């Protein structure tokens, strides 16, 4: 007998709910990956990605695989053995960056900050002063493990001033908050389809500057990964259309439509929706007596991390949310595993009704677990944000 798949409300760190039009697009007939119609889908997807990345980079495409494939693509193409790369680490995905970069044979120069905080520009400046010949500087824009929103502008300027490539992980930021690749001066930026873009997991949108492409031409060794070698992949996505791999056709349909939905809403409107919903949720959580984990002033609106109250069992609460309300939220990673919850309002999941549903469900469950919460306080605080968005800090 076929397994029944229940309807869930995905409010974890990803995947997020898909817009119905995205699911409908995935039911389109399969055609060949070199079919002229599919090639037009690819062209339109590249153009839409440029608009969402806010860039004019010609090398903008969608790599097969999740955001981690995008991460690997960037580092295996950018780095060769002996190269130096400065990596800001303030959470699990900064750590993953360092791990991936080290496997290329490069010298990783870690710049660490406490989980829940940002990597300060002065830390990066100090690392660049202490190490000559740095080839790249890398940061996570939206640290999914902590809910921290990392500033980029000043550090991007430092990278340019010392002639280094600027690499940015935008897996949880693209489509939820501005990324502004060209304005910031980002040379390589990758994301994932399953977060704020509102498509299923399976592709990693990425964009690369002309400086990055020039660096590719100067490599002295082949890229260590055949599958992720941009010198070949770009010929498939480019005008040459040289066969490299069989593209995940249905996922390209999904991304194409998801980008269309986002652009029809408008980037500024989507950013505002994520901001208002996220701040309403955070106000509600605090009104319930919960403490937010990420540093104030650097909290993502689309991914909220919150300390689990003393005496409350992490897995038990998440299990009840899933079983009784059909809501999924995420647990902590790394050094905060079992100590925080991660709540996502990503893409199509970022809706007002989801904010109130989650706050009401948490109030019920935590109240039964012995937590003292004023009935309705969370929803009242969220409603105040919706009635007066100007109060958003």
How does this structure look, described?
This protein has 2 domains: 21-264, Type I PLP-dependent aspartate aminotransferase-like (Major domain) (Aspartate Aminotransferase, domain 2); 266-391, Aspartate Aminotransferase, domain 1 (Alpha-Beta Complex). Helix 5 (121-130) packs parallel to helix 6, helix 11 (267-287) runs antiparallel to helix 14 (377-387) and helix 12 packs across helix 13. A hairpin with a 4-residue loop joins strand 6 and strand 7 (148-149). With 393 residues, it is of the alpha/beta class. A 7-stranded mixed sheet has the order 2-10-9-8-5-3-4, sandwiched between helices. Strands 11-14-13 form a 3-stranded antiparallel sheet, with helices on one face. It is built from 14 helices and 14 strands. It has helices at 20-25, 36-53, 67-78, 92-102, 121-130, 153-161, 181-184, 210-217, 230-237, 249-265, 267-287, 314-325, 352-368, 377-387; strands at residues 9-10, 59-64, 84-89, 107-112, 134-140, 142-143, 148-149, 165-169, 188-190, 203-208, 303-307, 327-328, 330-331, 340-344. The chain is globular and about 65 Å long.
* Distance, first to last CA: 52 Å
H and E string: EHHEHEHEHEEEHEHEEHHHHEHEEEHH
Hey, roughly how much beta strand do the residues contain?
15-25%
The main sheet comes to:
7 strands, mixed
Task: Quote the CATH topology of the largest domain.
Answer: Aspartate Aminotransferase, domain 2
What is the CATH top level name of the largest domain? Alpha Beta
Q: What does the average pLDDT come to?
A: 96
